[in-house]
Amino acid sequence: MANINVLSSKVYNRISAGEVIERPASVVKELVENSIDANASNITVSILSGGISSINVSDDGDGIEKNQLKLALLPHATSKISCVDDLYNVSSLGFRGEALPSIASVSKLTIVSKPKNQQFGAKIYSEGGVSGVAEDTASSDGTSITVDNLFFNTPAREKFLKTARSEESEIIVTVARFILGNPDISFKLYSDGKQVLSSYGDGLESAFICVYGVSAVKECYYIDTEKNGIVIKGYLAKPEYAKGNRSYQTVFLNGRFIQNQTVSSAISNAYSSYLMKRRYPFYVLSLELPSDVVDCNVHPNKLDVRFQNNQVVYGAIYSVVSKVLDGSAQALDIVVGNKEKPIENNVDYVTHNESVLEKETFKFDKLVFNDVKPEQDVLNKEEKSDTDIFAENKRYIESLELNKKETEKQEPKPVQTAIKLEIDLKVVGQALNTYLILEDGLDLYLIDQHAAHERILFDKFNEQIKNQDILTQPLLIPYILTLNYLEYGFIEEKKDLFNQLGIEIEQFGQNTFKVNSVPVCIADLNLKNFFDDVVSDLFSLKSVTLNEVLRDKIAVKACKSAIKSGDKLNDKEIDLLISMLKSNLGLKCPHGRPIAVKISRTEIDKWFKRIV
Ligand code: ADP
Ligand code: MG
To answer: What is the DSSP string of 550-591?
Structure first.
């Protein structure tokens, strides 16, 4: 029989380090959270080689007493909670007392700290979890923690580290989140000595600009409202400003960054009718709820939370976001400083009864959820106005489900792909300004001319790339592209590739490029949309085949932006298309949609009951 061993704290800490500390960005997250918990107003993060060789987080917070330094490095040692009851009312970011010991066990860690009331600071050093004694040292007020050689004693974990560049991006994303979630704290991030991010701690707008750039503010509604006892604040981008992936979605709950299904589906469902497929809303939302109706202790990285009542949260968020996007009169109460009103509407409507009802907020703290069946309990106990909230939420969810089913029903059935063309095709005409009708004497073909056009351009462009003979056309007025740091870094790295593809770009001031020329075949490319799409895919493009993917993307996007809906194919293009269709059975557009659909004579005859 195997012996059961009680693990020593050294072993135990390394195991828990594996759970909390995955990579340099997790160290940054834990250290910055500690600085925030210590009431810092200025936090500086400096990293070397993507944090792999060194991470320093310095703050001007409360500091740690000399005689507590060793304790801070012990597992389950925390100053933030002291008894089980505290667990139900956590307002600090940390509370488990495991971050410092976990980080210390897999690195060489130094803490220098000085509480304001002390004359001297103190310093402690720990290597692989073994710490020395605290000694006096000169220090400014606050705490500075340095983590060197992360994972030096855990080679298995070290192997999983990515390149310094991608660890750096992860840290930038982490710090950017802190900036957005703590707009009253000033953050600085330096990477290999270069300043990457800098916020001023003077409010959300400034924080938002620091991360996403000035132009993004103009594309967003700033909202500040309360619904069902939940304070909802932040930026919701207009649907036209949606992104190609979910990395532009940030939610904070009581100051903590969270990823929660209830919240994110409430927001995306509210946006869904405004967005095309595979477009994702862009938002930064901050929610405030009484901490006793949220459980933060459900996820090892504290990324997810559990609400005592999902429906109340869902309903509140869904209704607020929908109102803003629908541009109903009530949006006027939600959107702040709406220089540009979300709607052309008569303001009188705000005084209408309905809006008065809307203002009647449902206080969360009325809910006493000690029971296993919270919803039922509340439904029985509460007054009618409160039960209405539940009914309202139920109705939302039901109508959403219904909508979803309806749209699913309307989705076109998959069409056949392989089309054999042996005889000559004759153009019959054009229908609905969208489809070309062809026949070959036997069967009928419907051709999506938009998709076909894209395919023709795509092939033409790829051919030019292959032969390295892209004709470019200088832009009369160069296009100025202003990006955030991450996006800038991405494009900068790929500059040569863009140039090879005929999109000539050069640096033009901080985080800005100038686009000088574009390929002739896509001369009327909408550069704003194009770069928007390319950079919004930045986080998903981390593979080794990046160049390939990017080349295709550029070709696809280029073609897509070059075509406006309703564009007709000219005769030459129709001929070209027909010859392409003949040689390539089952031709698809660059996005994989079919270009042609065959309707057989038999099928048509059946419609008219010529045959059965
Ligand atoms: P937790 O944050 O869960 O309490 P940690 O291991 O992250 O656990 O930190 C342990 C303790 O060290 C904290 O409770 C706090 O008292 C102290 N501490 C850590 N970082 C700082 C800091 N930057 N400023 C002041 N105190 C700190
Ligand atoms: Mg902590």
So the answer is: HHHHHHHHHHHHH--TTPPPPHHHHHHHHHHHHHSTT-B-TT
Helices (H) and strands (E) in the chain, counts: 22, 23
Alpha-carbon 176 to chain mean position: 12
Q: Give CA–CA dist 222/377, Å, rounded.
A: 36
109: nearest Cα among 34, 218, 184, 209: 34
Query: H-helix or E-strand containing 375?
Result: helix 374-381
Q: Is 397 helix (H, G, I), strand (E, B) or coil?
A: helix
Distance 146 CA to ligand 1 centre (A): 14
CB 70 within 8 A of CB 130: no
Q: Quote the tokens at residue 50.
A: 């993507």
Report whether residue 79 contacts ligand 1, using a CB cutoff of 6 Å. yes
Distance 154 CA to ligand 2 centre (A): 22
Measure 115 CA to ligand 2 centroid, in angstroms.
17
What is the pLDDT confidence band of residue 58, given thresholds at 50, 70 and 90? very high
Token code pair at residue 343: 């709607």
pTM summary value: 0.64
Q: CA–CA distance from 499 to each of 269, 454, 471 (Å)?
A: 39, 22, 12
Distance CA 310, CA 308 (A): 6
**Distances from the Cα of 271 to the Cα of 286, 324, 338, 400, angstroms:** 17, 10, 19, 12
* 553 or 406, higher pLDDT: 553
Distance CA(312)–CA(289), nearest Å, equals 11
Residue 360 has pLDDT above 50, yes or no: no
Q: Please state the φ and ψ torsions of residue 451, each to the nearest 5 degrees.
A: -60, -40
d(CA 417, CA 585): 8
d(CA 168, ligand 1 centre) in Å: 24
**What is the pLDDT, as a whole number, of residue 354?**
28
Round to the nearest angstrom and report the end-to-end CA distance of the chain.
75
Q: How far is residue 201's CA from residue 186's CA, in Å, rounded to a whole number? A: 4
CA-nearest residue, atom 14 of ligand 1: 78
- DSSP track, 472-503: EEEEEEEEEEE--HHHHHHHHHTHHHHHHTT-
Pocket test for ligand 1, best of 9, 19, 37 (most atoms within 8 A of CB): 37
Instruction: Out of 200-209, 264-273, 288-297, 339-348, pick the least confident.
Output: 339-348
Q: Which amino acid appears at position 457 of this protein?
A: L
- Please provide the DSSP assignment of 105-124 as one string: HTSEEEEEEE-TT-SSEEEE
> What 3-state class would DSSP assign to 597?
strand
pLDDT more than 90, % of the chain: 32
285, 267 contact by CB (below 8 A): yes
Please compute the mean of the pLDDT values over residues 70-83 and round it to a whole number: 81
For the segment 203-213, what is each residue's pLDDT rounded down to a tens digit?
Answer: 998 899 888 87
Strands 294-295 and 42-48: unpaired
> Is the C-beta atom of 296 inside 6 A of ligand 1?
no
- For residue 445, pLDDT over 80 is answered with yes
DSSP state of 411: S
Both tokens of residue 405?
């089913």
**Stretch 357-380: mean pLDDT, rounded?**
31
The CA R_g of the chain, rounded to the nearest whole Å, is 29
Q: Is the pLDDT of residue 563 over 70?
A: no
